[in-house]
Amino acid sequence: xxxxxxxxxxxxxxxxxxxxxxxxxxxxxxxxxxxxxxxxxxxxxxxxxxxxxxxxxxxxxxxxxxxxxxxxxxxxxxxxxxxxxxxxxxxxxxxxxxxxxxxxxxxxxxxxxxxxxxxxxxxxxxxxxxxxxxxxxxxxxxxxxxxxxxxxxxxxxxxxxxxxxxxxxxxxxxxxxxxxxxxxxxxxxxxxxxxxxxxxxxxxxxxxxxxxxxxxxxxxxxxxxxxxxxxxxxxxxxxxxxxxxxxxxxxxxxxxxxxxxxxxxxxxxxxxxxxxxxxxxxxxxxxxxxxxxxxxxxxxxxxxxxxxxxxxxxxxxxxxxxxxxxxxxxxxxxxxxxxxxxxxxxxxxxxxxxxxxxxxxxxxxxxxxxxxxxxxxxxxxxxxxxxxxxxxxxxxxxxxxxxxxxxxxxxxxxxxxxxxxxxxxxxxxxxxxxxxxxxxxxxxxxxxxxxxxxxxxxxxxxxxxxxxxxxxx
Amino acid sequence: xxxxxxxxxxxxxxxxxxxxxxxxxxxxxxxxxxxxxxxxxxxxxxxxxxxxxxxxxxxx
Lengths: 473, 60
What we know:
heterodimer; A: 473 residues; alpha+beta; Amidase signature (AS) enzymes; eleven-stranded mixed sheet; 16 helices; 16% strand; B: 60 residues; mainly alpha; 50% helix
């Protein structure tokens, strides 16, 4: 058996289900890889070896009894530390939450993963309260990009993306309010899915912005992403935003030929200020899919409205702690939350109306197109600690600008699959494949085709210059 | 009251929200308020159709 770092989730599950490897051996190997390599990366905030080995033993017992051990048998996974795990305090990247009692039950998606045979390894680093795009956590340290340890992993689900990119786990879960799955997936060179708002249950996750929060998976292959997405789906009455819709199984679609898709390459806002490399990444995908240019009116206003709404809802959610424990926040998070909470009501109300209007613009565009393309980020991973970068000749804040292309899309809840574009000797970038509500199937078919054509795909960090020596741990 | 509209706004709004800010935080919140006002300027005057119901946005 190959080292677990080289195996996909699909390969691990096949080995365990076929009795050629035990879940316990897979998990032991995964825990040793985490112990050796995470010192350099800082992806994990807590490793749960006892729980992991108990879960693995349970999977092996099912195999030994001839029972179906489920589709993700023995596959290690980890979750952003805003998912509840029974017996563990849910940190959400903060020290304020560290004083809370441990969670009394697992988040719905954690339960669904374990019911599918997957084995939870632990919890992953993130920006404080998910309010950031860099995972330079003031309290728990920065997560480092496996492709260049001096650079950010992106955020706020930076631990989730970096863990998959570095082979610490083949599957992870994160959350995305304004781009927090898509930005780190792009910067770490892995696949990330932000499904339609309401598709996946958020029950048992710490909220940031209730009306914008989504959860979703990361993986190194489209097949793995489909496997995890298929087991995560399903209505959850415990989450009031969970849609009561039939499960849309996407794994079988991957083997079928991809039908020609009417693909639009978003211009305007989605092309302004992007680096040459970011434009090049979208161009490669657009050419492969024979995309034509498309315009989504109102994207700048939508981004601005999402920005203001995020501050208002996020600030309001944490107002009591901002009053009583201001010194326990990262100052940069605290002062943005306070400013957000103090916004005039008319701005917030108008932002909601812009949201409805912008959704109408997008739905109209989907009369002409099956799928839209946009860069995931305007630039590749920046050095850790670097506050500003250059966009279009101007010095701009890294934190404020990494999400300029993701924010308008999550604002209206559309499903997005970020595919990694990793050119030789270059830092990873990502392209957003965007579909109409509930059409994740279109995205998976296109991503599988792009991967098969060699246009998109994750690459092991060891092929890049600065990672191997440091990662050797 | 300061002559800077953002500082003046933060001073008044923070008091109404029972928030106590030290000087460094006050300066940073005022700077963030300027950023938010700049963002809000991109949409607050956007003409929108009458009868637009924002409540429908979460029912995709």
